Amino acid sequence: MRVLFIGDVVGGAGRRGLRETMPGLREQHAPDLIVVNGENTAGGVGITERTANDLFGVGTGVITTGNHVYRHRDAYDFLERERLVIRPANYPSGNPGRGFTVVEAGGMKVAVINLSGAVGLNVARSPFDTVDGILDQVEADAVIVDFHAEVTSEKVAMGWHLDGRVAAVFGTHTHVPTADGRVLPKGTAFICDVGMTGSRTSVLGVKPEQALASLITQMPTRFETAEEDVWVMGALVDVNERGLADSFEQIMVAAPVADS
Ligand SMILES: [Fe+2]
Ligand SMILES: [Fe+2]
């Protein structure tokens, strides 16, 4: 079973880039399951039913999110009813949405779990305790984790915590890809951050001049999604019948330049 995981899709530019790139990626790699982090799909921050449907439209099987998931109030009802869109499992349990879901892919029952780091981000419970609790109860042949976290130490620790127990731990949230992707000794594919799907002429997806103005002047600044030089970033993992990873491959491809 082959999983293609795609990092935080930023704004309309990221969604367009994904739409233009996905047919080629699907043809080249033939993934059985596509998991996409959609927390930045709506105007660069948050997700809506419409932007989620854009991701489903390119073949996405499960959408994960993160700290921006509740930015758009009109999406709360959607998060409650759409079981293929998940939010961090260690958020307050009464919050809209669910923290994991199970799908059929490549002849396997695959659980996808979304977790938030506790360092520098608001959570209700430890991601380590939370994932242990889910793994105790979930019935699946393989488990994929999106660990949406700020610091590399916590992400690396989660990789070791889950090594041999899940097929893959994909880091998201920082929007900058790391170079540590590999299969850990007990068979879990791991990377600190797969990067984002959005403009590289940007600061994490935001127009550089606006991000710079904010940092230099420390005044309130309007942030808009940058559009130029969109890249799709993610990772590809082959999962064996034991529910562990046989391979890890980083994906970083430039989206075709759109005709104007
Ligand atoms: Fe993000
Ligand atoms: Fe985030």
What is the gist of this entry?
By secondary structure, the chain is α/β, with parallel strands linked by helices. It has helices at about 10-30, 50-55, 75-80, 125-135, 150-160, 210-215; strands spanning about 1-5, 35, 60-65, 100-105, 110-115, 140-150, 170, 180-185, 190, 200, 230-240, 245-255.
Description:
The mean pLDDT is 97. The chain is α/β, with parallel strands linked by helices. The chain is 25% helix and 26% strand. The longest helix is centred in the N-terminal third of the chain and has 19 residues, at 11-29. Strands 1, 2, 3, 10, 11 and 12 form a six-stranded mixed sheet that branches. The chain has a six-stranded mixed sheet with strand order 4-5-6-7-9-8, with helices on one face. One fe (ii) ion is lined by residues 39, 66-68, 148, 173.
Index terms:
260 residues; alpha/beta; six-stranded mixed beta sheet; 12 strands; binds fe (ii) ion
SSE layout:
Elements: E1 2-6, H1 11-29, E2 33-37, H2 49-57, E3 62-64, H3 76-81, E4 100-105, E5 108-116, H4 127-137, E6 142-148, H5 152-162, E7 168-172, E8 182-183, E9 189-191, E10 198-199, H6 208-217, E11 230-239, E12 245-254
Parallel strand pairs: 1-2, 2-3, 5-6, 6-7, 7-9
Antiparallel strand pairs: 1-11, 4-5, 8-9, 10-11, 11-12
Bound molecules: fe (ii) ion (2 copies).
Q: Given the structure, what is the number of helices?
A: 6
Helix content: 25-40%
- Mean pLDDT, to the nearest integer, reads 97
Gap from first CA to last CA: 38 Å
Number of strands: 12
- Largest sheet features: 6 strands, mixed
